[in-house]
Amino acid sequence: MRSELQQELNIFRETVVRFIENEIAPYYEEWENNKIVPKSVWHKMGEEGLLCCDIPEEYGGFGVSVDFNFLVTEELARAGFFALSCNVLVHADIAAHYILNLGTEEQKQKYLPNMVSGHCIGAICMTEPSAGSDLQGMKTTATKVNSGWSISGSKTFITNGQNASIYIVAAKTNLAVTGSKGTSLFLVDGDSEGFSRGQNLHKIGQQAADTSELFFDNIMVAQNDLLGELDKGFLGLMHELPRERLSCAAVGVAHAEGALSLALEYIKERYAFGQPIAKLQSIRHKIAEMKSQTELHRIMIEHYKTLLTEKKLTTEQASIAKFSACEMECKVIDDALQMFGGYGYMKEYPISRFYVDARVQRIYGGTSEIMKEIIGKSVIGRF
Ligand SMILES: Cc1cc2nc3c(=O)[nH]c(=O)nc-3n(C[C@H](O)[C@H](O)[C@H](O)COP(=O)(O)OP(=O)(O)OC[C@H]3O[C@@H](n4cnc5c(N)ncnc54)[C@H](O)[C@@H]3O)c2cc1C
């Protein structure tokens, strides 16, 4: 069974790699300069069947295993188009699955087919200027009015913030309770009155990703735009976190594998002291460390993908994957860049893009410190 799946994945990989070579690589620098990937590229990805592959057929998807979804973002990461990889990840692995798992039939029918086709790009809006790791400090509110809810507040650092047309927004719905209670999720259309997209933020890496501020000025949403249960938004969030964190970890491993490949090519071509630097023992040993780390993490990711498919992946395991893979990714990419010497610091060498793009992996989706808190508490247990 597994080998049948592997064969199908290999065929799909060829399609994805060809798409990346023809439709992404030639234009990527232009998108980096524009700080956004054009919507037409999303449409093409949809036409090729590269978005939300595991969404069930009744909602426009292919109903295939999660491995197909991961393959797309991993290949984008491996090729060094990491910003687009993360954009697609937020759309296909996070936003679409919030709607699939928490949405009503009407919500699923309304949004999912258009998300599969790339005509409706999704974003997930949790972080606020004063609430990141500590989401309980959220200030955005949704107040009950006759016909629905009125949302006021702002969000920041939102991936797909400019391109999205459906925003999953977390807002306080009950100010009388504290802690994780009293927060709900809403589906907000990008053309809602009172909604505005702020700056496409200037980042040190992931230049092609549109990461934005968003503002909500008393925007009206209908009662049936509530996603999941009232006041139980954090439960919905917790439910989706294992997949979100594993997908961050998976692209992190593929990104490190891509950097290792670049380094392997370079060290055979670059001469120092009359020989290719690949012949230097210190380089060989460093390559051995990098390969051991990527290999170990690859095995973990594949095992955890199986657990995710079987709905057995725990919060602790997903946090281990996110923490360990993203730390490893940054280390391996740093080591790879070092092998390029001064050229590694030059923008025309793709390894420099790997370096700046990777850094945020230890920050978003739960920082490494927060991951360690979760893992430590879970391992030690109550006593
Ligand atoms: C490029 C990019 C894309 C993003 N995309 C999205 C998105 O699509 N949607 C979204 O909602 N958010 C998104 N984010 C936001 C991201 O999830 C937050 O930046 C992240 O959760 C950290 O929050 P913060 O920036 O407020 O840092 P803070 O929470 O202020 O943390 C600052 C430092 O304190 C540490 N710290 C905080 N609490 C603890 C603790 N209890 N124990 C130990 N250390 C702690 C942190 O680890 C960190 O080192 C994105 C961010 C970036 C940069």
Summarize the structure.
The protein is an alpha+beta fold. It has helices at 2-24, 28-34, 39-47, 66-78, 82-102, 105-117, 233-269, 281-309, 315-339, 350-358, 368-380, and strands spanning 122-125, 141-145, 148-159, 166-172, 183-189, 195-200, 211-222, 226-227, 271-272, 275-276. The chain is globular and about 80 Å long.
Detailed description of the structure:
With 383 residues, the protein is of the alpha+beta class. The protein folds into three domains: 2-120, Acyl-CoA dehydrogenase/oxidase, N-terminal domain (Butyryl-Coa Dehydrogenase, subunit A, domain 1), CATH 1.10.540.10; 124-232, Butyryl-CoA Dehydrogenase, subunit A, domain 2; 234-380, Up-down Bundle (Butyryl-CoA Dehydrogenase, subunit A, domain 3), CATH 1.20.140.10. It is 52% helix and 15% strand. The protein has helices at residues 2-24, 28-34, 39-47, 66-78, 82-102, 105-117, 233-269, 281-309, 315-339, 350-358, 368-380, and strands at residues 122-125, 141-145, 148-159, 166-172, 183-189, 195-200, 211-222, 226-227, 271-272, 275-276. A four-stranded mixed beta sheet has the order 1-4-5-8, with helices on one face. The chain has a four-stranded antiparallel beta sheet with strand order 2-3-7-6, covered by helices on one side. A two-stranded antiparallel sheet has the order 9-10. Strand 9 and strand 10 form a beta hairpin. Helix 5 packs antiparallel against helix 6 (105-117). It is globular and about 80 Å long. It starts with a helix and ends with a helix. The relative contact order is 0.11. The structure holds flavin-adenine dinucleotide. Flavin-adenine dinucleotide (FAD) binds next to strand 1, strand 3 and helix 11. Residues 90, 124-127, 132-133, 157-159, 203, 206, 211, 360, 363-364, 367, 369-370, 373 line the site of flavin-adenine dinucleotide.
